[in-house]
Amino acid sequence: MSVVYSAFRSIPLVSKTVRACPSTANFSRLLKGSRKSESSFICRLLSITSIMPTPQGINGLYDFRKVTPDDIEKQTDALIHRQRTAYDSIGSTPLDKVTYENVIKHLADLMAERATLGSPLDFPQHAATDKAVREASSKAEQKLEEFDVEMSMRKDIFDRVVAFRDTVNMEGFSDEQKRLIEKLILHGKRNGLHLSEEIQVEVKKIKKRMSELSIQFQRNLNEDNTKLFFTQEELAGMPDDFINELSQGEDGKLEVTMKYPHLFPITKKCRVPDTRRLMVTASQSKCMEENTPILEELITLRQKQADLLGYKNHAAYIVEERMAKTPKTVAQFLSSLSEKLQPLWQQEKAVMLNLKKEECEKYNYEYSGKLDFWDFRYYMNQVEEKMYAVDQNEVRQYFPLEQVTSGLLDIYQTLLGLQFTQESDADTWHEDVKLYRVNDTKTGEHMGYFFLDLYPRDGKFGHAAIFPLQPSCIAANGERQVAVCAMMCNFTKPTKDKPALLDHSEVETYFHEFGHVMHHICSRAAFAMFAGTRVERDFLEAPSQMLENWVWEKEPLTLMSGHYQTGVKLPDELVVKLAKSRKANAGGFNLRQIILGTFDQTIHTRGQADTKSLFAQTYLDIIGIEPIPNTNMPANFGHLAGGYDAQYYGYLWSEVFSMDMYESCFKKEGILNPVVGAEYRKLILQPGGSKDAAVLLRDFLGRDPTHDAFLRSKGLQA
Questions:
Q1: What residues contact residue 296 under an 8 Å CB cut-off, 6+ apart?
Q2: Are 87 and 110 members of one domain?
Q3: Helical H runs in 92-173?
Q4: Is 609 part of any domain?
Q5: 146 an active-site residue?
Q6: In Å, how far from its chain's centre is CA 659?
Q7: For the chain, what is the domain count?
Q8: pLDDT tens digit string along 124-163?
Q9: Which of 38, 296, 506, 513 is catalytic?
Q10: Residue 485 phi, psi dihedral angles, 5° rounding
Q11: pLDDT in tens, 322-346
């Protein structure tokens, strides 16, 4: 998971993330000034990364097939030793001798190093094909997280940062340097370093335990391999190409997994209620026995930490550093939006119930007179197909993955003034993974690289996310380090007869996630603490959500489409139907987001919870549908253990700003207008977290943002 590393790291700041490793070019720098006893550690640290199969600027080996569990363990120990020695040096600096160079810059360099050197160690757990390597990587992350907690509790270092602030005239320092110092002190206080030693010891103990639990929670999800088996009749309604791609079990039944390329199509398209019930039940039960106690212990520990640090609850602790500032503001936002959406949802529910009644009569299914939990996604799809005449199976024929990728890359290059070049001979962790180099079109500057890992496989990260592997920041040698990240998705694999075909919703996901890639690559912050997507969490999704609008417009859809058999672009009539369908199910879809945000806020304001019963009650209260008994969706709600605790509301919150940026600037001036794109890159993406998000928005919009465009996008009155 993505975290900002600092001496006083308080909480994870970025969505799904990991880190990377130093090149041999920096070998002498790493050793310079070190004791001879360190040399053997650094040599071991570089034993794998000194073999540089990837292009210049990527400071680590990402062909995990060449890495052993022993390599990972040794390199982890070497990195920890290296960093601890450096922190000890800072902590022993006499208080009357502190300077920018020996304290502040040294800490900034260590953050950059930690964010870079850790990636080949803790990213393999999400990507490597060898289970033993994944397990070693997970253990490495646990060690590194424990070390991070230990360093975040260094009162000796905190005291030296405070001494620097109190004794040095800050005139002449850049705004970003001043922000770094302010954040270091704030994070130190959020770790209790201004409190008694007894409290500090207890906070450190809690942080260590929370880190262990979060890693185990995600490990359980990654390794889950739940499968169900159905006859072809039980999959009635599914397209032939979907059926033909399924494997057969020993009894001749067809094998399906809980991964997205199976789960989403079946729950959207299969007309057999019992099949949908079994699929949704299995999905909602995933890792329930293992992860429910983990989540509930995390909730308790988070509250205990908040108590020790003087916060009312964990939500108050988290939101302090977000745009929303207080849990009360979040609660008002969620409840107000829920109230406005209820009339829309009541209309939508009536339509869905009518569709269900008609279908039950047609196929002789029992009609219960209510929407069941496993009906939700199915009848949302039925609304699109019958009320808006959008046949998603027809639409996906126009979105072969290769064409979508080509069009998407063209759009982003045009919009942001970039050039992408595939590195065809680069070694990666799997043959399906591709690597691209990014350069600035005008200046030719090398900005970074991104990996695309788009297909599901056993043991791989099971959702869609970006993993920053190397931040763009100023390294210790004074040169800018290029950005590197990996995009992990789980789209259906191509077969020998047919390419991978994407649903329109998957095209939207692809476009969204690639927006995060661009945020990471385009950042020009000086410090790793502010690099790329290290912005306030409730602003984090806004840049990518803003770019989702492109997949509803004719010009981008034309660029990204081409029928897999004929090459014909998506017809105008389908473009129009898609655009009209955008507001379909707006009530139900957004109320589900409110459910998740409300549940997240509730558990982190109460401080303890029976998550199973609370989730069921929250779902019933807000949307009027009862979850399946003896399931517990929060047990596979990875956000709650992956850095989104008490801040899931941020998806809806940031969408407010995304719609304002889109409607006020791009929609007005041209969605592929490179002039607007250049301003967007300069004012929103380039600063990273070096400025408050509110300042970024004012700079780009020329005014404070409003909710008007957001409400209009939901079919509501502004």
A1: 608, 609, 610, 611
A2: yes
A3: 106-117, 119-122, 124-127, 131-152, 155-167
A4: yes
A5: no
A6: 20
A7: 4
A8: 999 999 999 999 999 999 999 999 999 999 999 999 999 9
A9: 513
A10: -150, 165
A11: 999 999 999 999 999 999 999 999 9
